Amino acid sequence: MTPRFFISPDSLRHERVTLDAVVAHQVRHVLRLQAGDTILLLDNSGWEFEVELEAVGHDAVSGRVVDRRLAGGEPRLRLTLYQALLKADKFEWVLQKGTELGIAVFRPVLAEHCVRGDVSEGRMERWRRIVQEAAEQSRRGRVPSLHEPVSFAQAAQEAGQSGLSLIAHEQERGQSLRAWLSAHKAAPSLALFVGPEGGFSAGEMALAAQHGLAAVSLGPRILRAETAGLVAASAIFYETGEMG
Ligand code: SAM
């Protein structure tokens, strides 16, 4: 499989490309590629560039663009996951697996029952790297966006204004995710809210209803907070024909 890397669009302005230090390290020391080998570079525009390496030296790694094509790998449905903050390792799991599944935007949410409430800039940086590496590995055409955490109230308002939105609620008895999807299969974009281990509070569910978020059940079993978003995203992409 040809190695893939997301790089800054500025590096891809010309036919000849010099790789930044991080990608150069991967090429030279990790993959041990040589002049004449091919890599794929993506600039997050939805295009991919096939590059033949010309020089793999200590000072610089450079190559020449030999082909340019649409990257593929992006679902038609733009899914935003509003995931309540979880313990760091659980949240990282959601980011990595959610990227593999095809989630386009991650929005961490500070919900009432969250056990943690702060995310340092260093941690956001680490999370961005996790998302980028997962996007490269899973052959996404774009790196999903990871936004700064927001309060539940802000998130509900934002999602309510931007279009169709769902909130997974274990106490919902009237509407299943499946039934909701059968009526909305052609939606171009969708927001999905998933709560923390302690679940959403009654106040948050009332606010969600006020902003037009549709409450859905994911079945009679209670899923862990880090499982629910991934299961719902899989079901959504399956129902919308994105899983082969
Ligand atoms: N504390 C709650 C309880 O014990 O009943 C469980 C919360 S659950 C671990 C965490 C989140 O996953 C919920 O806020 C919800 O968004 C989602 N979730 C888990 N199971 C679900 C289900 N069967 N239907 C809908 N949402 C579910």
How far apart are the first and last residues' alpha carbons, in Å? 20 Å
Identify the CATH class of the largest domain. Alpha Beta
Helix content, binned percent: 25-40%
Number of domains: 2
What count of helical segments does DSSP give? 7
How is this structure best described in words?
With 244 residues, this protein is of the alpha/beta class. The chain contains 7 helices and 12 strands. The protein has helices spanning 21-30, 88-101, 121-137, 152-162, 177-182, 202-210, 225-239; strands at 4-6, 16-18, 38-42, 47-56, 61-70, 78-84, 105-110, 145-146, 150-151, 165-168, 189-194, 214-216. Strands 6, 7, 8, 9, 10, 11 and 12 form a 7-stranded parallel beta sheet that branches. Strand 7 (105-110), helix 3 (121-137) and strand 8 (145-146) form a beta-alpha-beta unit. Helix 2 (88-101) runs parallel beside helix 3 (121-137). The protein binds S-adenosylmethionine (SAM). S-adenosylmethionine binds at residues 168-170, 194-195, 197-200, 217-219, 221-225, 228. Residues 168-170, 194-195, 197-200, 217-219, 221-225, 228 line the site of S-adenosylmethionine (SAM).
Short characterization:
By secondary structure, this protein is α/β, with parallel strands linked by helices. It is built from 7 helices and 12 strands.
Q: What tags apply to this protein structure?
A:
244 residues; alpha/beta; Ribosomal Protein L25, Chain P; Alpha/beta knot; 2 domains; 5-stranded mixed beta sheet; 12 strands; binds S-adenosylmethionine
